[in-house]
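quick one, 353 residues, struct below
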Amino acid sequence: MPPFYKSPPGDLAARDRDILARLNLPALAAAAGLTFAGPPSGPWHPCHAAGRTDRTPSASLNADTGVYKDHGSGDRRSFWDLLVLLGAFPDWRAARDHHAAAVGLPAGPAGSRDEQKSAPAVRSRRVRRPAAPVPNPRVSAVARDCRSALTPQRLNALSSSVGLPADAFDKLGVGWCDRRGVWTFPMKAADGALRGLRTRTPAGAKRAVTGSRDGLFLPDAWTDSPPDRPDRLVIAEGPTDTAALLAWGFAAAGRPSAHGAAGIVGDLCRRLSPDEAVILADADEAGRKGADALAAGLLVLVPVVRVCEPPAGVKDARAWFLRGESADEAAALFDAAPPRRLRIRRGGKGVGQ
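---
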């Protein structure tokens, strides 16, 4: 694990506080993969622990200072070290310098070796950082078998049942499980590695194969040949909405739920470096809140971030596609959505976009 952040002396400490004060810390942590649960108590936001499994929230993040506390292990970290623990950055200096640049502030020198030794360290009980998740062998085997079992007839049946082109689903690596009588949709990491399988019955019921982890619905071709810095990456919710966007010809990725896999979306944006990210929210409260939270985290990763919904009276991307609208009409709605922006927090309260 990289060395822990040590509060630098004098002006450098003030500069670090200024960087943190200009950021929406809970939103950035959520985008990196921290899972919040329950209402905040003052500046402290309850969350599930990073780096270990807990059934109920056993950690918290201070939205003002960025201090993270794991109440179960006793671990206490700076915001920069939390981002390292979540796998968003290789070390705290990279995390700090990246966010300093995002808000237009110089990170400043790291300080001399003597300064770093003498500076008071953030009190911390080190915990072992978890290894990168390895695809569950059983899930991987099921995915291979289901992909092999998919026949043109089964693919066309899926296309007919949801009203979307068969080739869009084929791009997502859809499969068929004879034993369960369900279609399967791979959920992937940003590099295309398999994390889990979502299932869908002919009646539309959705579940996941046991042992699955949440991931993104991505075109199979991106595993080996990701698009070269796409002009626009459109992020939707669910495999059918993603298929609709692919059918229109957009570079598209799908989240497993309104708030799911935010950290993997961030990883994907780092990998693809799109000029613009458009978050297409479902037209409901959960969809809007999830889109807003994701947008706040992507603001420091993508030059332009937009959030929009389908036209009035349309719930999601699939329903929008089924209305017969063209890709040009969809692109016009994306263009009309105002870019989100980082707003500097003043007076110690509030962070906006």
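The domain at 137-340 is CATH 3.40.1360.10 (Dna Topoisomerase Vi A Subunit; Chain: A, domain 2).
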